[in-house]
Amino acid sequence: MKWWGWGAEGHEFSDADKPDLWPYIVRQLGHDWQPARQPPVPRSSIRLPDSRLHGQPLRHLRQLLAGEQLRLDEDERLVHALGKSFRDLWQVRQGRIAAAPDAVVYPGSEADVQALLRWAVEHDVVLIPFGGGSNIAGCLDAHDPLGRPVVSLDMSRLGRVLEVDAASRVARIESGVFGPDLERQLASHGMTLGHFPDSFLHSTLGGWIATRSAGMQSDKYGKIEDMVLALRVVTPAGTLVTRPVPRASNGIDVNRLCIGSEGILGVITEATVQVHPLPPATLWQGYLFPRLESGLEAVRECVAAGCSPAITRLNDARKTALSFAFKSRRGRVRGALAAALKAWLRHARRFQFADCCLLLVKFEGTRRQIGRQRRLVNGIYRRYGAVSLGSEPGRAFERGKFDFPHLRDWLLDRGVYADVSETATVWSNLGPLYSAVMAELDRALHSTRCPGWTGCHVSHTYPSGASLYFTFAWADRLEAAEQHYDCLKRAAEDAFLRGGATLSHHHAVGREHLPWISDDISPTGVQAVQALKRGLDPRNIMNPGKLIPASPGEGPPADPTSSAEASE
User: Domains of the chain, with CATH numbers?
Assistant: First the structure.
């Protein structure tokens, strides 16, 4: 894992086969803007705070674990110090590590986890469950407001599919399994979970559950909370176990109390989930709508008619322009065909390309099922003015769908900053909310006096509504970037809550969204979470500072190097 960016060492984004991408970025930021190289500081320049874990607690910990299960070296502590939020990466690339875990442990079984929690309670040590480290909401901040030692609990050794019940389409799986390993193991049984978030390569089942994740194919398979039948969660009060049944009327749904808990109640060690047979065939299609409103109506009608594809991803006009700039280099024949199609759209269909919106869909099933579904959606899309672009736009998206997080590191190296805020609302509010949030983001961007860009796409739909996923980028001076990020993030989240939407659809709360949690779920809702926390973790050793607003004086540690620079 990189300490300074997304994914594994040696895997980086390249624009070598995307000749239009950088020219597009430069046009959006203004021809008078000049990129400033801002690489990460050398690893050798980073010094972590000294470990506070020593004496009897450390001796007892060594007795619980074997060999490489306990790591105290700086490299391990560094990669487990933060997640991959904008703020995390902005700080770590400058070598500003205000807090880091004092040790990293790798439990190999649920029994190890139970022993570690008993040890942590006895010695008053904070534990932070760690899956793939890819969270972008600040869920892995290693700061403890009381100054206690902090241990990162890396779950990657619990990575097995334990049992598959093909008749029931149910699988029992350890929580530390990464997305690709999970799908490989399920595929050997002819099954899939169908959960493919952007972080799929670098995230785990337990992390998906702890953050209420959504995958790209949620229109068919649902969000992670729709997949979980039962859980095993080790808490300081004991091990919580639920039964793998399809539905129950046994009081408050304990599964739902743990899904989205972000590690503040305990450690998810195992989940029983609904799985599905691997689809015999798939088909990608791309469509171009004359404007966003027509695309939204077409997507809504497909949902209402029950014929939504497995993936429905509708870009607004700005995101559409970025998608086309992202395309790979074309050969002479493909280039000529693309030019001919563009001319036909302009002259025969009177398309205004500044307003056009790209829709990407993926069908799954037997060829007969796909053919029937495709005919239904094509009929709906045509009524709203869509033109089919064939399968290549979708196939291009599929080839690079897990590369988008790497693009952020590539931009950071060039002095361009980017982040996202996403939400969900009902269909009747989708258009007004989109307009309000885009206006607020544009106003906030103008206030920073930085050249920038904003865009949005819809990627998860439901009978009652859909998600809106906003992206914003800006060119900035290194010392001002965090201040301007706060301005843009606040503009988006304030607009969400003011517009009747939620603070996040699938990125969790963490540190980044905590200021809005009381407004979103109400102060009484926060009290309910506090009561649950006190009941299962009365000493507050499990990932403190997340989900529940801090008491006065319990905020994150100040960056010791930033005060003078922030005032300049």
Answer: 54-155+532-566 (3.30.43.10), 161-277 (3.30.465.10), 281-401 (3.30.70.3450)
